[in-house]
Design a protein that fits this description.
With 293 residues, chain A is of the alpha/beta class. Helix content of chain A is 33%, strand content 22%. In chain A, helix 3 (76-88) runs parallel beside helix 4 and helix 7 (216-227) packs parallel to helix 8. In chain B, helix 9 (265-277) crosses helix 13. Classes of the chains: A alpha/beta (293), B alpha+beta (384).
Chain lengths: 293, 384
Amino acid sequence: MSILVNSESRVLIQGITGREGSFHAQRCIDYGTNVVAGVTPGKGGETFGGSVPVFDSVREAVEETGADLSLIFVPAPFAADAMLECADAGIGLMVCIAEGVPVRDTTTVVRHIEGSGTRLLGPNCPGLISPGERAKVGIMPGNIHLPGKVGVVSRSGTLTYEAVNQLTELGIGQSTCVGIGGDPVSGTGFVDVLEQFNADPETEAVVLIGEIGGTKEQEAAAYIAERVDKPVAALIVGQTAPPGRRMGHAGAVITGKAALASEKVRALAEAGCAIIPSPAEIGATVRGIVGSK
Amino acid sequence: MKLHEYQAKALLAPYGVPTPQGEVARSAQEAAAAAERLGGKAVVKAQVHAGGRGKAGGVKVAASAREAGEVAEALIGASLVTAQTGPQGAPVHSVLVEQTVDVARELYVSITTDGGRKRPVVIASAAGGVEIEQVAESDPSAIITEAIDPAIGFQPYQGRRVAAALGLTGGQSRAFASMLAACHRAYVEKDLTMVEINPLVVTEQGALLALDAKVSLDDDALFRHEAEAALRDESQEDALEVEASARGIAYVKLDGDVGCMVNGAGLAMATMDTVKAAGADPANFLDVGGGANEEKVSQAIQLMLADPSVLRVLVNVFGGILRCDVVARGVADAYAKADRQPPLVVRLLGTNVDDGKRILAESGLDLTLVDTLQEAAAAIKAAG
């Protein structure tokens, strides 16, 4: 009852010996994630947390442990190299947490993995979690999640926690929660995740959280209208943001008309989504659609 | 990061983008001397980061070197209010003095990265000299786009294709394709997020010339472009925003009176929307970031209180990496130091929330603690 990650996933953590990497690696392990290896160039042969072997390269880690998913904690200036190394080693899914990866670097990586067997989530994302599988591959607080049947996909980090918290408070559990990231160019998009949720027999409804800027929500709306037969609740934030200003997320800048919150809400409503009227009403809106289709 | 027009032209010219002859001047004397070298008659252009300079009186033709000096005298040191600056305007510290050009045609061309297509895209139009957004709205068919594959880069045939769509032939087609290739090289090598030439003119003599140029650099890539990073002109930005950015805080000044301090950009926008839904207006966007410590939280609050339009404050933190006890100490510290204490509404959730609430309760601060976004909205309304 999950997408992209489950209890069988063999997780590798790049940058496992760094400050952030080691902190979150331990939290993922504590949650129950199957962390099989770490990579830090120059630290090969060490062990993390008493049991996780550390390797010098991703290729070695894959050969020795069969790792198929990588959580990348490498700092932004070096993130592209880490992602390309991952792709070279044939990792199936890589999750890049770093904020501030140059747009040119992301564009290069995304183009390079086009048509390959490697999928990228992020950069500038919180990662993903499947509570029922006890698999957490990211920086989200694990304890707010509840196993269940609602899929969550969002461009944001802490706002995803807010959404999940509202669901859990109402006793509505989640199948998988995916943060696709706030950068203007990123790997996996709304449509990729919606496709997976739609195909996942255990996911009964989806919460989509978008924001101003870009056209990702319109692409999601078109896909929902055409392909998704499960109920979708959608929230767009940034209604009060002024045009032309970057709101923290590099992607959150209103440029063309399609980037306006009102345009995105209209497209999602026309696609049949239940529009969440304000961020305070995520839980209540989802309660209204669960089992409604 | 935006550059001034003269900086953008200096960045693009070495790549092979043809630009008018000209010099930057920081005083009336310098401007007059520059015009003299151009033969007397010259265009004097105020250097500010905002567009819409022409209509605002920031671009003037001077018939003589003396007149160029007079125009510069009036512009330098003044504030230029354009449609994009807001009522306070942008300070003018320099002018660009350029040769005058006899214009036959005005075209538009730019390169930016399209998040949907996940690659750089050339945008061009035969309707140059006006806002491209207006063209896109009134006549979308007048916009030409050409996506660039990052794996192989910009190709000459693409330059010819765009040139043909703009009605350029022969030598002009070749000149255009080579100029576009030059723009793309600069775009990649300098990590630009936008290069815009508007207008790109065809002169009466048949030459192509970038009459105006705008360039934005990727802030996240400045670490590998030291020379360009040094070109930043902080006088063109809001003082509080500059201070915030130096401390690693994402802050954008808005028009309302509710100061909002939040962790995470998405939650910050959601908080602003909640404030708005409660019938109030946010005074700012503020994302204190995930890795903040007590000092950074305190600085963020102090920064917000430095804005006199802030009359009530909403703190909304969902603790993950950022712990609620750290936030509580930071907030208490800032309010203890501040010379005014506007009504404060705090919502803490997540990591160490109980410690956070206890610290705030023991601080003796007069504040309203809330648990949900609904309660936060109601409390902000009551504080108005």
